[in-house]
């Protein structure tokens, strides 16, 4: 969770990114590379986020480090970033990565599909213990894990989705599902949407989805994108999670509530 100065810096950089032209897919991949270097090189990270060092000096340093490795658009964005104030040094790399996610999603032109594909990958990992173990195995290289997922997903998903999944297993987020959740929400944000995760005993038909989307979009004053989890334990009704809000209208929750009242 970003705080104070870092959150403001992210908002300003995101606005600048929205005005970017050219190859935004390449920009996104380059931002991932920059984020990786910043995470690995603590000395560089400390210097470029040190508020006591002159802004031009920090911009010059990142020019020396990254100038020959990235495009002009990426370098300009990075130099803008290091001129800003950051609450914590690690926030810079996190925000650079988030901007990379946004750039890739926008370049795909299919943000909803990318978000749904990330959700499907997350479900795949959750449902297959062997796959989760393999992706969590520290003895396996990132390249090996990416090759495994490429074999599983192949041409079944968008290129942007594969790149994001590859970033999710790079190890900077710990468990892959945490990264996938974050990237899902960033994909929705790039489309000016919010994600609602709906737990139901069965899949919803088109009319049910439409009614729920309409109601939630009106309530949150923003288009809401549904991702449905079929969960037999729900019994009946729906459990909707959107941001930090939980709307629980399931039969199972009502039974649990009744049991607590009887026990009390």
Describe the structure.
Helix 6 packs antiparallel against helix 10 (159-168). The protein is α+β, with helices and mostly antiparallel strands and 264 residues long. The chain folds into three domains: 4-108; 111-189; 192-263, no CATH class. The protein starts with a helix and ends with a helix. The chain has 13 helices and four strands. Strands 2-1-3-4 form a four-stranded mixed sheet, sandwiched between helices. Helix content is 65%, strand content 9%.
Which percent range describes the beta-strand content?
5-15%
Morphology:
globular
Assign the structural class, choosing from mainly alpha, mainly beta, alpha/beta, alpha+beta, or little secondary structure: alpha+beta
Strand order of the largest sheet: 2-1-3-4
Domain tally: 3
Unreliable segments of 5+ consecutive residues: none
What composes the largest sheet?
Answer: 4 strands, mixed
How large, in whole angstroms, is the Cα Rg?
A: 21 Å
Q: What does the average pLDDT come to?
A: 90
Helix content range: 55-70%
Q: What is the string of SSEs from the N terminus onward? A: HHHHHHHHHHHEHEEEH
- Tell how many strands the DSSP assignment holds: 4
- For the record, give the distance between the C-alpha atoms at the N and C termini, rounded to a whole number: 37 Å
What is the number of helices? Answer: 13
């Amino acid at each position: 969770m970003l705080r104070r100065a870092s959150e403001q810096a992210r908002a300003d950089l995101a606005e600048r990114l929205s005005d970017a032209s050219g190859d935004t897919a390449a920009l996104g991949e380059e931002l991932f590379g920059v984020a990786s270097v910043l995470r690995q090189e603590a000395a560089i990270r400390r210097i470029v986020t040190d508020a006591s060092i002159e802004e031009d000096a920090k911009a010059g340093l990142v020019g020396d480090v990254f100038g020959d490795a990235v495009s002009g658009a990426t370098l300009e964005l990075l130099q803008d970033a290091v001129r800003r104030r950051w609450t914590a040094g690690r926030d810079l790399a996190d925000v650079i990565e988030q901007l990379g996610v946004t750039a890739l999603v926008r370049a795909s032109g299919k943000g909803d599909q990318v978000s749904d594909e990330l959700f499907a990958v997350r479900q795949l990992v959750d449902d297959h213990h062997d796959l989760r173990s393999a992706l969590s195995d520290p003895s396996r290289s990132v390249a090996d894990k990416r090759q495994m997922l490429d074999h599983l997903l192949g041409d079944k998903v968008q290129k942007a989705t594969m790149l994001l999944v590859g970033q999710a297993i790079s190890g900077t987020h710990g468990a892959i599902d945490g990264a996938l959740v974050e990237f899902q929400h960033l994909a929705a944000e790039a489309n000016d949407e919010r994600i609602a995760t709906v737990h139901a005993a069965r899949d919803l038909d088109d009319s049910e989805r439409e009614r729920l989307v309409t109601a939630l979009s009106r309530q949150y004053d923003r288009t809401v994108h549904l991702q449905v989890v079929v969960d037999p334990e729900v019994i009946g009704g729906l459990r909707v999670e959107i941001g930090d809000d939980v709307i629980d209208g399931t039969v199972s929750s009502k039974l649990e509530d009744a049991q607590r009242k009887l026990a009390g």
